[in-house]
Amino acid sequence: MSTLEERGSDNTPAVPEPIPNPGLPAHTWRPTDVDPAKEKRAERQVAAFFLVSAICSVLFVVSYFAFDVGDNWTTFGGLGASTLFLGLTLGIGLMSIGVGVIHWARKLMADHEIMEMRHPAASSVEDREATVEALNTGIEESGIGRRPLVRNSLLGAVGLIGIAPLVALRDLGPTPNEVAEDADYPGAGLYRTVWQQGMPIVRDAIGTKIKAEDLEVGDLVNAAPEILYPTEENGWEGALEGVEVQITKSKAALLLLRMDPAEIQAAPGRENWTVDGIIAYSKICTHVGCPISLNERTTHHLLCPCHQSTFDLADAGKVIFGPAARPLPQLPIEVDSEGYLVAVSDFDEPVGPSFWERNKG
Amino acid sequence: MLLLGLLVTGGLYATLAPATAEETSNQEDLVAEGRELFLLGCSFCHGQNGEGVLTQEGAQLGPALAGTGAAAVDFQVGTGRMPLVQTSAQAPSKPEIYSQDQIDALAAFVASLGPGPAIPEESDYSTEGLSPEERAEAEARGGQIFLTNCTACHNFAGSGGAMPRGGYAPTIRGVDPKYIYEAMLTGPQSMDNFSNGNIPPESKRDVIAYIESLEEKPGYGGFGLGGLGPVAEGLFAWVVGVGSLVGFAIWIAAHTTRTSRKKKSELAAEGADA
Amino acid sequence: MSNSSFDTSKVASTNATAATAAKPTKAGVVANWADERLGLGTAMKKNLRKVFPDHWSFMLGEIALWSFVILLLTGGFLTLWYDPSMAEVTYEGAYDPMRGVHMSASYASTLHLSFDVRGGLLMRQIHHWAAMLFIAAMLVHMMRVAFTGAYRKPRELNWVIGCILLLLGTIEGFTGYSLPDDLLSGTGVRAADGFMKASPVIGSYMSFFIFGGEFPGEAVIPRFYVAHVLLIPGILLALIAAHMLLLVYHKHTQWPGPGRTNDNVVGYPMLPVYAAKAGGFFFIVFGVTAVMGALLTINPVWQYGPYDPTKVTAGSQPDWYMGWPDGALRIIPGWESEIFGYLISWNVMIPILILPPLMLMVLILLPFIESWVTGDKREHHLLQRPRDAPTRTAVMVALMTFYGVLWAAGGNDIIAIKLHLSINQITYAFRVLTFLGPIIAFIITKRWCISLQRHDREKVLHGYETGVIMRSPEGGYSERHLPISEEKAYSLTARERDEVWSPESETDANGIPAPGTRVNRLRARLSANMFGDNVQPPTREEIEAAHHHAEHEHQLQSALDGRSADGHQFDGHHSVEGETLSRDD
To answer: What integer pLDDT is reported at residue C16 of this predicted model?
Structure first.
């Protein structure tokens, strides 16, 4: 019964229409067509819209020069006056043109519906045959079918030359290994960060070192390595420059949490990684790398604001909810001779999102 | 139900109690006054000496209060979070029940249980004494500290955000600077502590200066859509943008009014036929 | 262009000097000049009065088109001040809370054009709103095309172009969203770095190449900029042109109705009515986005602050069109596996690297799958009402439900705080709904469509329900039905009968299974599922029989007729001028 296929592009339905086509309904007039008064009124309405638009354009220019931006924003009703008035005059000006034109089309332009016949999308049989013939003639005259040597060597050549732009893209960036071996900033590459033995831990955004005894139980510190806050005294000036600062931040961001030492369930081998209940974790989520610091003090559960992975900071940073698969890397810390918190070493695993060769480093 | 009853008695007592505490200058009297208030309004959950109460299942009904300090009491009771109406994931802010003098008395009593952060002086959190230059610098510093420590939970505009299992970080817009300072100092409920050893007092004031600037700055780009970020923006794009444009499209394509009348020329032609 | 100018050009082209008698008008002179060089006369002869059918749903694609034009205009304005550089600068502009803060040149120039350039913030907001509308309009336009079956032959390729436009629009949006280098978009780029790193084998290399070294590097913003202002808009422009050329070539589809058949197109001519309506609509779309840009803050980058990899804000979300993969990323369990020491991050690959391309493929293939199952190779220019293709409608609603659930999951934190729910419970609910929702939506939609079809059939056969209750002499109650107008009846029945496809024969003459029989059986079963339950329009005989029956009924009720008002006049199908409900006999 594959009648549909046999019919091809023939569009006549198989069963005659149950109700015969009554044809296009007769055209009726609009009030504006038969009543000159209404016609005039519509005309005036359209012109009025265009007039509103013209006024708005003038007001736009006035607003541009009347309202200040920069150090002294002119405000209006708690909003920025410049943006507000420029936008409203521009918007209403544009909209009035649009509404006017459409009103004109709806009320005054001739509204006889007209009919156009459709033609099959396919070209006519003659055209198609002529095209196929022209194509065959062209192919025949080129001799591409008869000369496999020419054809195949051309295919090979074109294929190979496509490699050129691909190869040229190679210098988009260094490979991970090149970065790890050649980059001249500390902690380069996927497997290392700037943390090293004795690196002081400082308050992020403030830049001061942290005394362990100053922190109370329940304190959460968004912390950073001291190298990110160079001063003359600490001797880090010039250690990181330009882009290296952002790269270092993206891997070294740290969370310090002080909790009751009794609550910490230290993982095997990490018994000495904390100082009086102060525990340090990488702030970079192991899912896709958002920084996390939404901690619930009472439960020590840390939530990622991007995809809601939740980590238990009392239990070695284990994932207890959400899409992350691995616990947060923990940083071993100690206090220096003056009582300031410092790192014992780098993280013992790569921080941040997973990657293919992660466990091969 | 019992909880509610106690709360009501506590509340009633709070409103009906004679205003004797107001004249009390003596610290011991204040503590005694606070103790009385505490026994009536708070001890059911927190224990008669603020030692905390465990339910039979072992869950914490009310935590121990020794060492939480006067600042915590001032925050919890002053913002109406305590006394609690019902146990839930988190105590919401609501109209406060106690007067400031009664709160001071309660705070004095709790502070007497163990050392903890005191209620901050106005000079600690107020930004009023700052010159315009100092204020601008404080806002710039405070903005960076705010973005580092606060936005993760409270959102870039201080609109608040979701926390695990029904918890939430409340909005911090329109909150008294004193309570913002106390919240940082004491870490109420699930919030972390930002004690003075964590964020120094002057940095706390910088943060407050930044939060105030968020409220004072005009809406440069128009209405703020609740300061919730792209979800609210997407909602407006669909409802206001797509909604109004589809509305316009319906108007553009709608049939215009029709009339059964005919043009004069047609009528004349018909008349001629007849 | 008057006819006389055509004639003149023809004469001119044959180098004859016979000037026309009539003096040409000024416009005629210009037209003549242009035509002699461009031959516009032939090209425009047909197209100036080309017919476009009028329906609001045909203008959804126009919203997308005009949004794109607005994006080009406002985007051009923004490039005059924007500096696509990640070099570190110290901000010294007008916005106090950022003064003295270190930031990238791109963020600083975004602040500069927002706070020191008059109209700059407005243009940035118009640009962003228009971008949101661009993709939203493409999506609703696509839904309209799918729900009405407009993607059937000969328009399948235009559907494919449309799908690619949707993909490119999304990428264009993401690269643009990232350019200000603020905290929110930087978090998005950081997530994109995580996506790249999760790709098997080449992941970390891909990340290092795109970022020019370790994340975030200095290269990504200039690279995104080139993609955003040159590469992708170029491709978009070319594809939009192709999309519209095909539209002109195929002529627009139309709804069936009296005089409107599969072989014609009825509507208003391009000049003047359609040109006025479409041109006017451009001004309206621009006006609406300008008013939105004036009143509604979008992407307040000055509050987010410059991108800093150690900072994050609650409510970190992408723009809405990236919301559904982000939702999938939120609800996926933490699956990772290790093979020969190599790590496979299913928790990133499934929602980001597998699901969206798969969804796009399903969309692209929809018309081809449908025509394979139905075996229908005819051209279709008449639209179907969604109810008249219940399976297609149900498939679309199921896809929309899938999309919608993931979309909502992308806002699970906002839902949690606004509805006071637990984010964990919401996430569990979404995990279940992702699978259950589309199935339920499919079943409900299909049944709903079929019952609507049944209702249409009833209307054609027995008329509409007047709401007038009649009591028979025996005391039985019945509702009075009256026939619908001929035009309406025609519109309701002017659709094709669905034919269930069946293979011609399972075996050939010798009893050997015909090649491809298993595929054919699958196809037959799908076709039966697709059409088996549909309600077909009544045949001519059925209509006649029903009308005969109705006449009989009317005779029985004739005692009641002749009353001036039995109430049916007020059912909305009649002019009620001069009618009252009172019975004056």
So the answer is: 43
Q: How far apart are CA A194 and CA A185, in angstroms?
A: 9
Domain assignment present for residue A359? The answer is no
- Contact at CB, B152 and C125, closer than 8 angstroms: no
The arithmetic mean of pLDDT across residues C435-461, rounded, is 95
Nearest to A218 by CA among A97, A338, A314: A314
Best probe of the C interface among B151, B153, B258, by most C CBs < 10 A, is B151
Q: For B45-93, how does the pLDDT look when each residue is reduced to its tens digit (9 = 90+)? A: 888 888 888 777 767 778 888 888 899 999 999 998 988 877 777 888 8
Higher-confidence residue of C296 and C514: namely C296
CA distance C313 to chain B (A): 4
Q: Per residue in B149-198, pLDDT tens?
A: 999 889 998 888 888 777 888 999 889 999 999 999 998 888 999 999 99
pLDDT for C514 equals 65
**Which residue range is the domain that position A291 belongs to?**
182-343
Neighbours of B139 (CB within 10 A): 26
Across the interface, do A1 and C258 touch by the CB < 8 Å criterion?
no
In a domain, A360, yes or no: no
Q: How many CA atoms lie within 13 A of A27 on its CB side?
A: 13
Is B205 among the domain residues?
yes
Preceding peptide of C537 cis, ω within 30°: no
Same domain, B49 and B140: no
Cα radius of gyration rounded to whole Å, chain A: 37
A152 and A18 in a single domain? The answer is yes
User: How many domains is chain B built from?
Assistant: 2
CB spacing of A296 vs B190 below 8 angstroms: yes
Show the tokens assigned to B113: 């249980």
CB A278 within 8 A of CB A333: yes
CB contact under 8 A, A106 and B221: no
B210 vs C contacts (CB less than 8 Å): 97
Q: Are residues B98 and B137 in the same domain?
A: no
Q: Indicate which of A69, A288, A303 best probes the interface with C, i.e. most C CBs within 10 Å of its own CB.
A: A288
Query: Could you tell me if A125 and A210 lie in one domain?
Result: no
List the CATH number of the domain containing B115: 1.10.760.10
Q: Any CB–CB contact under 8 A between A23 and chain C?
A: yes
pTM, 2 dp: 0.90
Task: Tell me which of B223, B259, B265, B270 to substitute to probe the interface with A (most A C-beta atoms closer than 10 Å).
Answer: B259
ipTM more than 0.90?
yes
> Domain residues for B102?
25-119
Q: What is the pLDDT of residues C156-182, one digit of tens each?
A: 999 999 999 999 999 999 999 999 999
Could you tell me if residue A58 is inside a domain? Answer: yes
Answer whether residue A351 is part of any domain.
no
The total domain count for chain A is 2
Claim to verify: residue A165 and residue A216 sit in the same structural domain: no
Asked if A98 has any chain C CB less than 8 Å from its own CB, the reply is yes
Distance from CA of A359 to the nearest CA of B (A): 30
Closest of C407, A220, C317 to residue B162, by C-alpha: C317
Residue B219 Rama label (left phi>0; alpha psi -120 to 50; beta):
beta
